[in-house]
C-alpha cells in the first residue's frame, strides 16, 4: 500500500507541483489549504509524512506543527517545512515545534523527494 503524505500550503500551484512529484514517486497525497484545514483532515488515518508551508492564513505552519505534535496519533509523524522563509530564527522555531527538515522555495522536486525518502515513516 502506498504511503500517505500530507501537503499543506495555501498556494494551489505549490500543492499541485508537490503532489505531482510525490504521486510520481508512488506516494498517496492528501492536501490541506492551511493549518486549520489540514488539522481537520488528520482524523486518525496513518499519515507517513507531512510537508507544510510556514506562512499561511488561518493557522501558520509553526502553529500547525505544534498542534500536530500534541495529537497522540501524529506525535512521531515527521514534518518537512517547505517555505520561502530562510531566516535562522524561523528555522529554529520550526525545529522547536518539531519539524525535521527545512526546504526553501523555489525547490527542486528531487531535493524534496530525497528529504521525503530519508524521513518518511516505515
From TrEMBL:
PROSITE patterns, sorted: RESPONSE_REGULATORY
Source organism, top-level taxon: Bacteria
Gene3D superfamilies listed in its UniProt record: 3.40.50.2300
GO biological process assignments: phosphorelay signal transduction system
Keyword Phosphoprotein: yes
Key words, A-Z: Phosphoprotein
List of residues that carry 4-aspartylphosphate: 53
Protein name: Two-component system, chemotaxis family, response regulator CheY
Organism encoding this protein: Noviherbaspirillum humi
Amino acid at each position: 500500500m502506498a504511503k500517505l503524505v500530507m501537503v499543506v500550503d495555501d498556494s494551489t500551484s505549490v500543492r499541485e507541483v508537490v503532489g505531482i512529484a510525490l504521486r510520481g514517486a508512488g506516494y498517496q497525497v492528501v492536501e490541506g489549504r492551511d493549518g486549520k484545514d489540514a488539522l481537520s483532515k488528520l482524523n486518525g488515518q496513518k499519515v507517513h509524512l507531512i510537508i507544510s508551508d510556514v506562512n499561511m492564513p488561518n493557522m501558520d505552519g509553526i502553529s500547525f506543527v505544534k498542534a500536530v505534535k500534541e495529537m497522540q496519533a501524529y506525535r512521531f509523524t515527521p514534518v518537512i517545512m517547505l517555505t520561502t522563509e530562510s531566516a535562522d530564527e524561523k528555522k529554529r522555531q520550526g525545529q522547536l515545534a518539531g519539524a525535521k527538515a527545512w526546504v526553501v522555495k523555489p525547490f527542486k522536486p528531487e531535493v524534496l523527494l530525497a528529504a521525503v525518502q530519508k524521513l518518511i515513516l516505515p
